[in-house]
Automatic annotation (TrEMBL):
Organism the protein comes from: Acorus calamus
InterPro entries xrefs: Cupin_1 (IPR006045), Germin (IPR001929), Germin_Mn-BS (IPR019780), RmlC-like_jellyroll (IPR014710), RmlC_Cupin_sf (IPR011051)
Keywords on record: Apoplast, Disulfide bond, Manganese, Metal-binding, Secreted, Signal
Disulfide bonds: 24-39
Cupin type-1 domain ranges (all copies): 53-200
Keyword Secreted assigned: yes
UniProt name for this protein: Germin-like protein
Length: 210
């Protein structure tokens, strides 16, 4: 029997340790799965798989919300596949807004780097609203799956960077989920307590039918 003092050294030199995968760079030619993309052959991995330069400038501004979201998720940054982390850049023009939305697969941590942003979330237990105005250098966390929002609180452009504890946090924007599809108006009216005129107005703005 080996002395107990030698056991840590034996574990470190065992074949089990050698089989650990350091990373799994995504094979984007395959389909995503709940556990991530399959890995490309490690022999084809290069340092560029672990570097992403796309956050140096804003994404494309959506004129409806006056904001741009520029993600570095697995689809843009294959090196984060399976690592439980990702990031995006958020740009808000004056009066810009990121409407109420959720990330089903991740908690979000937002840091403001320019301007000021009013941000908040709604708890699921008591529907309590937690919101505040963030300035440069301020950080706020949005727990996984909870409805939350960001609004430019100043007269100039605001910028923030959000990190997630998932390579693919998922996204569902409440307004688009309700009014940008073929959800029957009669059902929407009953389930949201809105009248037909308001439902049709919102569908007209967001492109819904029915």
């Amino acid at each position: 029997m080996y002395p107990l003092l030698l056991l840590p050294l034996l574990l470190l030199s065992s074949p089990i340790e050698a089989s650990v995968n350091d990373f799994c760079v995504a094979d984007l030619s395959s389909s995503d799965t709940p556990s991530g993309y399959p890995c490309i052959n490690p022999s084809n991995v290069t340092v560029s798989d672990f570097v992403y330069t796309g956050l140096a400038k804003p994404g494309t501004i959506n004129p409806l919300i006056k904001a741009a979201v520029n993600p570095a998720f697995t689809a843009q940054f294959p090196g984060v596949n399976g690592l439980g982390i990702s990031v995006l850049r958020l740009d808000l023009q004056a009066s810009g807004v990121i409407p109420l939305h959720t990330h089903p697969g991740a908690t979000e941590l937002l840091v403001v780097t320019q301007g000021c942003i009013t941000a908040g979330f709604i708890s699921s237990s008591a529907n309590t609203v937690y919101y505040t105005t963030l300035g440069k250098g301020d950080v706020m966390v949005f727990p996984q799956g909870l409805l939350h929002f960001q609004i430019n609180a100043g007269g100039t452009n605001a910028v923030g960077f959000a990190t997630f504890n998932s390579a693919n946090p998922g996204l569902q924007i409440t307004d688009f989920a309700l009014f940008a599809n073929s959800f029957p108006s009669a059902l929407l009216e009953k389930s949201t307590f809105l009248d037909d005129a308001e439902v049709q107005k919102l569908k007209g703005v967001l492109g819904g039918t029915g």
